[in-house]
Fold these 2 entries.
Entry 1:
Amino acid sequence: MKIVRAIPSALKRFFQSRLLRKLLTTPTSAFGIFLLVVFAVIAILAPVLCPPRYVGHPYMIPRDSFAYEPQPPSAAHPLGTTTGQYDLYYGIVWGTRTAFRVGFVVTFFACLIGLVIGTVAAFYGRVVEEIIMRVVDIFMTMPFLVAAMVMVSILGAGLDKVMIALIAFGWMGYARVIRGEIKQVKALEYVTAARALGAGDLRLILRHILPNAIYPVFVMATMNIGSMVLTAAALSFLGLGAEPGYADWGQLISYARNWMLGAAGNSSAYWYTVIFPGVTIVLFGLAWNLVGDGFRDIMDPRMQGSR
Amino acid sequence: MLSYIIRRLLLLPVVMLGVTLLIFAMVQMLGPYKRLALYVDENVLSHMRGDDWDEMVELYGLNRPMLVQYWDWLAGVFQGTLGYSRTAQMPVLRALGKYLPATAELALLSIIPVVVLAIRLGVYSAVHQNQLGDQVTRVVAITGWSIPTFVMGLTLLLIFYGMLGIFPPGRMSVWTIPLMRGGDFVHYTGMNTIDGLLNGNWRITLDALSHLVLPVITLAYISWALILRVMRSSMLETLRQDYITTARAKGVKERVVIKKHAKRNAMIPVVTLAGMTVAGLLGGVVITETIFNYPGLGRFAANAATQLDVSAVLGFAMFNAVLMVGANLVVDVLYALIDPRIRLE
Amino acid sequence: MLVVGVFAGLSLVGVAYDPETFVNVTSSGYVTLDPCEAYDTASGAILDHVYERLVEYVADDVYVIPGISTEVPTVENGLLVINEDGTATFKFPIRQGVKFHDGADLTPSDVVYSLKRNLLADPLGGPQWMPWSIFNRGGADDDALEYLNQHIFIDPADANVVVIEAEFYAPFILQILAGSWCSIMDEDYVIAQGGWDGGENWKDWNALPEEDNALYDNTNGSGSWILDSADSELGFSLQRNEEYWGEKPILKRVEVVYDNEWTNRRLMLENGDADVAYIPINYKPQVEGTPGFRTVYNLPSITNGAFQFTFEIAMEGNDRVGSGQLDGAGIPSDFWQDIHMRKAAAYIFPYDQFIEEVTFGESIVPPTMIPTALPYAWQEDKRVFFTDKEKAIEELKLAWDGAVWENGFFFELNYNTGNDTRKTGCEMMRNAFFDIDYRFNILVRGIPWPQYLEANKAHALCALVIGWLPDYPDADNYANPYYYSDGYFAYRSVTSALLFADAVDERIIAASKSSDPAVRGPLYDEIQQIVTENCVMIPLQQATARVWMRRWVANYVYAVHQSGGWNYDVVYKTADGSDGALHPSMANIRHTLEEW
């Protein structure tokens, strides 16, 4: 409610800020934004670019047969097929939707959980904070990929399980950041003033503290979206992600593993199984990194003013 | 300082307990028959019927209450054993000892040249900010950092192994096996590059290196990009500091300003990052090891995780906890030692 | 740059051609070195070469020849006596002068100890049920030691002879004794390793976890090969036993390397670093035509697979059956008990597509689950079910008095992630039914192994794609697991729920107890008749085997029971790397050879 209202005002400040203008004028981050826009367009237009074959299951990649050998690009399959005759073009286009979905959902929930926990810790201080931060420590010490793999082995296959695993082990960074920010803000004068005027705890948090402290969290979240998608792709590559045949980049490229030596006498016979999904993943990661890097560069001293 | 170190070290058992209990609890969410999966593979399954299931559950104590099973494991830890790992087919402690040198070899080779290079380029980039050299370096760095390990690994394998036939995956070639398993070869460190030299067999060292080239490039590129970026931004910030302006105003030569004043102070965050990176690499890099079929800790832990080999995962988690807490501590202490403004509370 | 170049140059250098060392690169690893427990092919491959047994398989066929025993007991040579009460007495004269690798002598008491020790150890899920079946028992009961003392002993009349009193006679008893689970060990050595002391407390060594068995990670056999070193992840090395009592192998050294990345195996074979490699059939297009490669295929195999129905699906908490009613959104527990439903599935399945796309055409669709290469098995001309959409629709209309045709159905098929054959089988079944109409709705989902395992136990899977690797090459080892209502697969599919189950059961038992082809023949014929008429399961494929090797490998021989393994006693490499010929017996075994 109040917190929901806090977000739009923060967003509004972002869009009106020098930050955005600066981002758009720096060549590297502008390129990043451009790439993101391209990906977004592909994702939105997916049903138009690649009409789903299985009614009700648009993420299942169509396959003409079950044959193992990948086929090179042709009229019917513009980017070729990978093992099992999954169409690469379809997989990459719908995989864009998957990527965005994974990125946003995971980041949103991880951020939310981290915010709540971090806020509670920072606000109540002392024993509560100590206990919570130890729990954060414990989670941070967990070997991330291994813990995620255990969780997926337990929950079963499927992209939603992967997202749960990523959220379960991805909230700690946000908790730490928001805690640090709140502690800083807590000491500021206007908070003391508000309290002197009799403002209650919750109101203090939501109305005064959070809106100011949330900014770095927001930046962190933006930069994590890309890395979450890559981690999900990595899990898919290890066989723990989406079910076989689901439009997911990591899975597409995992199929290439057994074909990269090519055929006898032609070692690059199946290059397209690696290159097409690979380039897509790289460009996606690159886009987020360029934008994130732009953020950092600009946030550095000169940003202090517009906070 | 000392009390700080002690307090941090006291954290270690707490963290280890927490981590292992958490993982154990996760696995216990599965019913006993599902946890039997560690002991029953396809072949065994096709020969099971009737009472066999319950007998096996009994045999492995899978139906006891969770805390009893956990206590069983914990008691073992106090007695010095981490249990038996079915995926590695040896006691967990021995498995950790077996795979650690391989991972260490990979980690050390990936980090040492990288740090040096990254620092130099970071300084250079910051000093020549936004000029061509800086732009090029940043683009190369960002590209490296954007390529996920599995994509880079696969592509490198495709080019060098698939098309050119050099730099094979795995750790050693077949012809080294009789040499290394025979009685003459002494495993001093477990790291084949070093052991090869110590045993006077340079061909083994070279074979080990040829298998390491691709995984090291994959890991190094990414570490390098990360460290470069931190070095650069830290250097930029330092160069803006007042004391740098003062030094310049005093007429100190630019090169001295950079090397003597700015660089040293700018390196502080790099120390942190490098330390944590080493710790991370020593904990094993799952994906790189899987792609290159490199028998290190990461792959061992990944296999254990997917097969629910609980003792192995717990053992690995404990090792990782020691690594993380230790590295954090070392980095914080170093930080405090280097920068007198930092006070450890 | 220079450094990289040096590496490049040096990594291209392998090792010169060595005709005395044989390198086999394959996937996975062995599980245990203890004969009482080893059941997988990889462990068996080691034990077969390092240990010996009373009798051994001949190199190129399924009958047995003398091993540690100097003769194979037969009625003719008097060493086999079939008593009036149906029991059988086997007498094995033990060979003199055989030594174990540590120098100790092999004595008849070692033989008796070995057999008893393994039987008493009887690890869970292990192979000891086979030798126990000789005594009509399922495993080690409370009186096991007393029983064995009376049934396996040294002949009081001749200290060199070991007597085994079996509860019945069957020809496959000798085959069971030729398996790695009946390997002969040195009593003193086993005791020194912490094994059973021969005394009353045998239960302390019974049903132990794999790592607690005494010979888990070390060996001391009498065979033609000594295990030089072994790592369950990396591979093992065998060294020729120069003190071997019999004919020594030509090869001096064998290296078996485990590598789960098939691309590495292929490259090793190409470079000549390996002499033979395991290459999965799906990657055949990548390796065909490689110069220097030879492949032998179309070899008769006795591994097969089927699509099996679960006759009593567990309903509680089971999403796989949907609504649990025949209302188009689910199926009831006894869904498959209607013969028309089963026949519909049997007629709709695209057999040829499955064979073509999953096995690259390298298998046939067998008429029943008893492999065509074995005696008493029906041959391909007796196959009943072919892909026929019209017939399938007919049967669908009859199923459950028309309820299926009217409402359709829904259920879920599962495969364990990573198993492509199962996955494709399920998907093809789904697509085939979809082809008739979308109301015949099957959901195919991959689940992790633990979930798959539990679903098996709970009878929660609606249908399964199953496969079987034989323990010994006899029709009984197929009829029992597949068709006997308390057999392995039948147990899971609850075949006992079917009306004709008793009829099949009695015949299977009777056929396993007789040695007379005149008796077994008709019995197996009837069994196959009943199961085909009633469409108990859908046979999907019977594989043919294929091996890949370099052309300098000589004397390769194929034995049906070896499951694609290699016999290092027989095979060797040409001295100069020229082409090696196949074993002469291959002329009598169906095969096709290609080399480039």
Entry 2:
Amino acid sequence: MTRQDAPLLEVQGLSKTFQVGREQVQALRGVDLTLRPGQILGLAGESGSGKSTLARMLAGSSAPSGGDVRLEGRSVTGERLQGERWFKERVQMVFQDPATSLNPRRTVAQTLEVPLRTLGLNAAARQSRLLELLDLVELGQEFASSYPGALSGGQKQRVAVARALAIEPRLIVLDEPTSALDVSVQAKVIGLLLRLREQLGLAYLFISHDLSLMRNVADETAILYLGRVVEQAPTRELFARPQHPYTRMLLSAIPVVSDEEARLKPAHTAVVGEIPSASRIPSGCTFHTRCPFVTEACTRSEPDLLDVGPAHVARCIRIPDLRAAGVLP
Amino acid sequence: MTWLTGTAPFPQTGQAPTLALDGLSIRFARRDVPVLDRVSLHIRRGERVGLVGESGCGKSLTMLALMGLLPSGAQVLGGTLSVLGQLLAQRAWGHARRPAPGLAMVFQQPTAALNPVFTVGDQLLAVARTQPKQVNKAALTTACLTVLEQVRLSDPRRVFSSYPFQLSGGMRQRVLIALALLRKPTLLIADEPGTALDVTIQAEILSLLDDLVREEHLALLHITHNLGVARETTDRVYVMYGGRVVEHAPTAELFRSPSHPYTVGLLGSIPRLDGSGTGVGIPGTVPAVQGMPPGCRFQSRCPLAEPACRRLEPPPDADEAFVSCVHPLTATTRPGLWT
């Protein structure tokens, strides 16, 4: 295995349980993920699936209840380590809403100064790095003295990206980075993120509920349901041959803007109910309460991830039958 | 000049529009340029009409005018509103603090629009009591349970006695639709219904609205920023930009052959499920209202802008399909515009 192929991030059996009053909320239940340098791994799922809990844990703002997160082979689940420069130089975070993640009383320059100071750069070096960062995110130098209030949503998100880039991380966790933006602005910010990935060899953990966006951004996509990966594959494969009934339900519900895309959606799957609370996780396959193909066996034990195609895994015992019956491609 | 792109987009049948908003212009005090410039919308019973555009296009301000909820600084410079052929006095809409007669609204945020300290039943009864036919409490309760059934809530009695926090997001959105139905509207205004919900639940809410339009023979004004939603759930669409309607067409036609450079740019910015890319977006931003150019308001961002664009006036007729552009795009000019 060459250096390039060594995983940047390995998540193994990651679990998180919150105690809320008398209830145990199982936000994550044994998630395994691997991310290589330069790769974009997409995480999709409905609210309550555990996407954001996972993001917070990777960014070091929440400690797991079980399992391990390894960064370049080194375990980083201890909270003390995550405050360290070694960790910050590898993982940075961009949040959904730039309006609340930027300090309204700091100019763009002051916001970008914060991470640059931790690098111990002198004033002249900080200034030149500041201009370099603005240039990287395609903002003019005149923005250095602007306050967030004077910026548009897209410009604010560019500043948030610049702040994440300041100490040259290897991985950026992007938690719904464009869902607060209009589509004509989203297209530009996504274009920027994809160019930066090429230019700087960054890896992204890209969290989004927008599957059409995911299709165009992620190299590989994992679908999360009630704290567990239910299907994962290279993005093109996942969208061409979705296998898990939950993935198919999600895809069939996406509103699209052309007849060509409508033909790509799986046959309409009636949506049954809503995602159950993470404090009352159904027994057996956790999707069985909403699944159109549920059998008695599905309620007994939770299936493992099964190989269903090239680098393609899904957590459903019905897949072989459904394929034989021609229900699945 | 405004190009009419076809005949009337919907069978007219001589029927007066259920809602006819004509030439609505609004400005905020001390600013010369109107933020809404001669906006016209016509909607008939049984029709699902989309009002689409991005933040700041004026779709919400238009909705607020219909609902009588304009902010106090907003001055109505002109415009008329008729409901069921009846011209309304301006005090009945705009700043009236109540919806124009016959209109009811489904708000976007089910959590914010319901009062957390009262049961669903209390909130429904409060609306039921304001309705013209005053009857005893038993009859009011029956009316409330009926609308809960109409929105396909499987256990109306349980929902009736529940507090909002005991319901899921999808159920709360259904309760909001039930509240609107209690007013026995002829026109339902839905402001981004389902936008706050997951895509699977959104699909259910949208199909419920569809059924209600058919069963109750309602007119539906669907305000959305999501063009995919507009394509799948409306019969025709008004596209707004910078406070003007820039294009109006039957939905299928708009998505097959968009003609306004803005509409084309917007459609080109949407990530496609076939993986063909996330598009390039539209350069620049919507100008602040003080900086709006005369004529076409998209000219500062349009690759085809020329002096004639400064004289472009909004279209006069909300029934015809039109594109408000000096250079409407065609099948040959469309693909190369935004690259």
